[in-house]
Every structure is written in C-alpha cells, then in structure tokens.
Amino acid sequence: MAVTFPGESAEYRTARNQLLAQEIELRRAMEAVAAARRRLPPGGIVAHDYVFQGQGPDGGPAEMQLSELSHPASTHW
Asked: 34-55, pLDDT tens digit by residue?
C-alpha cells in the first residue's frame, strides 16, 4: 500500500520513504541496545545510600534515598 498526500511531489515521496526506512532502522537499533542493556549482569555494589532532593507529592521539597528509587512503593519520584 503506497501512502501519498495531495500535492506532494514524487521527489518528496521518495525522500520521505528513505527517511522512514532510516527511522525504522534506528528504532530497531535502539531496541537492540535496550535489550542488550537488560541482559547486563549486576553491576558493583553502591557503597553509600545517596539522598536525592526533589519535589514531593504535595509539591513541597522531599528527599528520597537511592535504595528507595527502585522500590515499587516509591510513587512520588
């Protein structure tokens, strides 16, 4: 199925199709990198439970420890 828009030139459609092919290739490469990242073995141990400052659920300042960031109950970050 060929997609065309009213008034577009053949030159534009050719260039747009080439760009679309590049975008698809880029997306596949990004997904491959993400899959490789997920397959990484565990990294080193973090020696300190760092504290981050940000905005809490009430809009005011809040602090959260690094160990809390990956916890499913941490919903305000």
From this structure: 999 999 999 888 889 999 998 8
Assess whether 32 and 56 both reside in one domain. Answer: no
The number of folded domains in the chain is 2
Whether 66 contacts 58, CB under 8 Å:
no
What letter does residue 59 receive in the DSSP assignment? S
Evaluate whether 31 touches 50 at the Cβ level (below 8 Å).
Answer: no
CA distances from 47 to 40, 67, 70, 74 (A): 20, 11, 16, 21
| Same domain for 34 and 4 | yes
Contact 62, 76 (CB under 8 A): yes
Region 16-35: mean pLDDT is 97
Q: Locate tokens 């899959």: which residue?
A: 35
